[in-house]
Amino acid sequence: MRDKLVLAIGVTLFLMLLAAMTNSWKAFGYLMALNLSLWLVFGAMKGEDKIGPAIWLGFIAFIIWAGCLSVIFYYWGLFKGTLPSFTIGGMHPGFFVLFPLMWLLSFIPVTLCYALLFDKWILPEESWNEYLEHLKKIRESREVGEYE
After folding, report:
1. CA 41, CA 52: separation in Å to the nearest integer?
2. Structure confidence by residue, pLDDT tens digits, 31-90
3. Is the pLDDT at 121 greater than 70, yes or no?
4. String of b and e for 24-59 (b: at least 16 CB within 10 Å)?
């Protein structure tokens, strides 16, 4: 599963490169959202085959990013070449979506969820303790001269 995910990340990176080279910035934005979601799922995998609850976090993040990008592209097209007829909080409507909405709706909750997911799924306390015990055995065997 991990190999397939790495391949999917590579394909999306290649498609992002093609989109940038052909000046297709909308496609680039959506591919970027997909790529970031895939990286989020990849980073939250446990071992080689266990995706676990990170798949939902990646899916939700992609939906939020794609939705925000759609609104940004809408305002970009609406006010292309002109000043906007209104502002939101003194900002261009597209920038308002990019900064406060996309950041508050996406970055902060996804980061917090990832931190909670990390403690429960990726590296629970018992796995960390097993790792520390393993290191302790290695140190003890090196003192005796067995582990070289």
Report:
1. 9
2. 999 999 999 888 777 766 777 777 888 888 899 889 999 999 999 899 988 989 898 888
3. yes
4. eeeebbbbbbbbbbbebbbebbeeeeebbebeebbe
